[in-house]
Amino acid sequence: MAIFTCPECGKIDKITIPDKSCLAFYKCKGCKKLISSKHGCILCEYTNVHCPLKCDTK
Ligand SMILES: [Zn+2]
Prior knowledge:
It is a single chain. By secondary structure, the protein is mostly beta strands. The protein has one domain. The strands form two sheets. Strands 1-2 form a two-stranded antiparallel ribbon. It has a two-stranded antiparallel sheet with strand order 3-4. The radius of gyration is 10 Å and the shape is globular. The two termini are about 20 Å apart. The site of zinc ion has 8 residues, from loops.
């Protein structure tokens, strides 16, 4: 599980980490906004973990 923190409303949510991919978008359950990452991966940008591809550009 990855702990997602919404950049719009600050809601914390748990995301199941995909096996072999980045997550480009995530719909926040708090504000219902579709969150996208300018780096291409919301796992690396907005959660406490890196995606399986380690595409981190922080
Ligand atoms: Zn939100």
